């Protein structure tokens, strides 16, 4: 099963009260990569090792997001949901539980990715995004990184950030891509 993807509003609400699932090309066109593995199967371990080797993801750690397992939970969760970008890829593999990664599409609208057990995504450097838990209120994620991890989040607007500019340029000649800060 691939992750389910649909459009949401500014506060994460479903639009027109429904979830119209979108094809995964919606992610591909904005540079988001995705895989589906099975954390319980050894073949998946091999596949994960392969992905890590190919993409140079030498660093790995695990993070559990829920009130009793994450220090400064309230503050962290608030920051995760604030629209931001990073100077590097954000790579997450969902081992247990579930949660929502929202990314901006080419029209600057929110696309919600429902990550569940086995889903793995790579958000490209410079993409605006945010994260929030779903009703299950628990997720265990593997975080990967090339070399020593840097988790610095740059809150929107970051139109002058060279990594942001590079990302925008990579989106097919920028036509129709809203650059305005809000
Ligand atoms: Fe992030």
Helical residues, percent: 10-25%
Task: Classify the beta-strand content into a percent band.
Answer: 25-35%
Bound ligand species = fe (ii) ion
So how many helices? Answer: 4
Structural class: alpha+beta
Distance between the amino and carboxyl termini = 35 Å
Question: Could you state the oligomeric state of the chains shown?
Answer: single chain
Q: Give the SSE string.
A: EHEHEHEEEEEEEH
Low-confidence stretches: 174-182
Please state the CA-atom Rg, rounded to the nearest Å. Answer: 16 Å
How confident is the prediction overall: mean pLDDT?
A: 94
Q: What overall geometry do the principal axes of the alpha carbons give?
A: globular
Largest sheet geometry: 8 strands, antiparallel
Number of strands: 10
Protein name: Acireductone dioxygenase
Organism: Eleusine coracana subsp. coracana
Keywords: Amino-acid biosynthesis, Cytoplasm, Dioxygenase, Iron, Metal-binding, Methionine biosynthesis, Nickel, Nucleus, Oxidoreductase
Pfam families: ARD
Describe this structure in words.
- Fe(2+) binds at residues 84, 86, 90, 129.
- It is a peripheral membrane protein.
- It is found in: Cell membrane; Cytoplasm; Nucleus.
- This is Acireductone dioxygenase.
- One of its GO terms (biological process) is L-methionine salvage from methylthioadenosine.
- It is a single chain.
- The protein is α+β, with helices and mostly antiparallel strands and 182 residues long.
- Helix content is 19%, strand content 32%.
- The chain contains 4 helices and 10 strands.
- Strands 1, 2, 3, 5, 6, 7, 8 and 9 form an 8-stranded antiparallel beta sheet that branches.
- Strand 5 (90-104) and strand 6 (110-116) form a beta hairpin.
- The protein is globular, with a radius of gyration of 16 Å.
- The N and C termini lie far apart (35 Å).
- Mean pLDDT is 94; it is low at 174-182.
- The structure holds fe (ii) ion.
- The site of fe (ii) ion has 5 residues, from loops.
């Amino acid at each position: 099963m691939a992750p389910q993807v649909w459009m949401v509003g500014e506060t994460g609400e479903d639009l027109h009260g429904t979830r119209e699932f979108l094809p995964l090309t919606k992610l591909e066109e904005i540079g988001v990569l995705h895989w589906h593995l099975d954390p319980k199967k050894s073949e998946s371990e091999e596949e994960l090792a392969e992905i890590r080797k190919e993409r140079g993801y030498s660093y790995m750690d695990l993070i559990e997001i829920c009130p009793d397992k994450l220090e400064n939970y309230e503050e962290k969760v608030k920051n995760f949901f604030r629209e931001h970008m990073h100077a590097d890829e954000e790579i997450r593999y969902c081992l247990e539980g579930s949660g929502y990664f929202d990314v901006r599409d080419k029209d600057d609208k929110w696309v919600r990715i429902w990550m569940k057990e086995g889903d793995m995504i790579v958000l490209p450097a410079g993409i605006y995004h945010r994260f929030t838990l779903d009703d299950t209120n628990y997720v265990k994620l593997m975080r990967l990184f090339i070399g020593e991890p840097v988790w610095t989040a740059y809150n929107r607007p970051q139109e002058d950030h060279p990594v942001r500019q590079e990302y925008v340029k990579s989106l097919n000649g920028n036509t129709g891509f809203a650059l305005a800060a809000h």
